[in-house]
Amino acid sequence: PPLLVLRAAPLPAYTSMDLGALFGGSSAPARLLIERDQFVLDGQNFTVRAGCVHYFRVHPDLWEDRLARIAALGLNAVQTYVPWNYHQAWNASSLGPARVDLDSPSRDLPRFLRLAHGLGLRVVLRPGPYVCGEFEFGGLPAWLLRDGPIELRTDAEPYMGHVERWWGELLPRLRREGLMLDDGGPVMLVQIENEYGHFGDVSEVEADRRYLERLADLARRHLGDGAQLFTSDPDDLAKLTRGTLSPSASRLGSEVLTTVDSCDVPEDAWAAQRSFNPPGRSPFFCSELWVGWFAHWGEPARPNLAAQRARDVAERLRRVLAVNGGTGSVSLYMAHGGTSFGWWAGANTADGMYLPDTPSYDYGAPIGEGGGHGLDEAGGDKYAALQSVLLEAPSGGGSSVPSSSPSASRPPSPPAEPQPLREEPPPPRRLSSTVEVELPEAVRLMEAETLAALSGGGRCCDELPLPMEEVGCDYGIVVYETELPAGGGGPLQVSRLRDRLLAFVDGEFVGRMYRQQGWGRADPKGLLMPPPRPYPRTLRLLVENLGRVGFVDLPWFSRTFLLDQRKGILGGVWLNGTLLNRTGPDGQAGWRTHCLPFDDAQLDVLRRLPARQPSGLLDTAGSVALGAGSVALDAGSVAVSVAGAMLHLAQGSDRDSPPSLPSS
User: Fold this and answer.
1) Which of these is catalytic: 288, 369, 441, 470?
2) First to last CA, the chain
3) Could you report the per-residue pLDDT of 101-111, keeping only the tens digit for each?
4) Phi-psi map region of 352: left, alpha, beta (phi>0 left; psi -120 to 50 alpha)
5) Is 195 part of the annotated catalytic residue set?
6) Catalytic residue among 134, 136, 193, 195
7) Rounded CA gap, 503 and 341, in Å?
């Protein structure tokens, strides 16, 4: 039987055959223009009514179903980020970035775009290279940190060289596959960077202005004139000044549209937007209308905006659509949030505290994480409330069905007059709030034989523990191993811990640490160790990377903070006041490192290891109980129910931990 079983009520699936149109014939290439503060598509005024859904947070088998629900909501476009780190890993053989992956099932962006097209949805694409989105490191690859400090998100090398190679593979692929608007495809708007006013300052820093201009030039070079380029920043004059290519700041001010997000007061937001665009070239576009919010570990399940009532969200949407005589454009963030699978959940900061994001990205969206109608805390139906506003609002003009509609497996076919949608898909059955997980077998993770099998013996030997990135561990878990001298005992202290540590001595669990105290400073009280013994013992420190910070709302501090996103142990380890940098009798340094990303290769090894019956959440032998049949959703990604809970199997209750710690 499968080792990990998730039972939940099945959802009905909807396809483009249910909702899409049949096409034939031909027409001229479409163009999205701006005239008299309005979008114009194929000679008609057009308003963007988009919904955000991240393909990387939805199982690929469900892409079409979720897109169909977005279309039935009354939207004519889908908006998505393209996270760089999700598509370009590190190649351990060549010791450099791997080829960009746009073909494996969960990373097949062209297929996702074709599915949207087939359902009559145009596309607002946000390829970064930084995307935020509460995603690991804001979408930047962790391998950028392997060689130490590097200037990020500005016109500096080697960062821009990596960006050019990334976009040099991504963007031409979209063009070759006919996915741009002027090739008959769905992509009509392409964002440059993301909320740059939170980080840089194009008005004062020359390298920052060059950075955005260089990105815009790259996009034009690879994509041609088939899409309208734009930037997105909060509707705050200071952030717009720092983050946009306005006519007063850039030679590209008339080519790159400034848009705004948040939009609490839509008319004021449009006024701010107009001040950064040439006269007559500022269609109101609220590029993120927040319908909910995300959650950090330790917070209520539906904090802040996620708890807002459906009717209040609907009223905010109505006010946005009413701007400029009813021509307001909008993107609902999120229409469907999904799940940050595996190790892909990111982190934030607030008041000097590190706040890791939960794998759930439900976001209080109108389409819930499980695909059902999103409900507010009072039971109000967000899907129904927003659908009512969208269907009652004046038509956005311009057919929401594209002029050509390629299927998910073939190139575009000649277009013809679209057929009307036959019917709206019915709402799915509401899911239960619980699922059943069966783990009939487990292995002892913290035994020497298990670690050696998983990591190939590990890396040996270093004088001090090294950051994860320096030993080839971009994501997941790292285990540091050394020998305690005879008589060794007393408190254990760790300098610059990132992020969460479980300590084992001779396989016995002895305590935990967390980076929560300030900017990564571990608890000075340390961990109480077992009593001294007259013989050497093995110390193993299991450190979990809870996600790299992708957003810091402190422009003067962001640059330095992004450089400080390495994981593992960045300082040293002390036992009873003595630094553990001892050298073994063979002259080698004393720390061995095991990298545990739990990718497909390691899961295959794990399944072949001797298994036993699990003894409960707290493994009494002091080792982590991990299901040997853990489900891998895609290459390099572990099912979130295992990846997010794995460490908690070894530690029982978290009642004695700081309130913001993850709890089992």
Assistant:
1) 288
2) 25
3) 999 999 999 99
4) left
5) yes
6) 195
7) 26
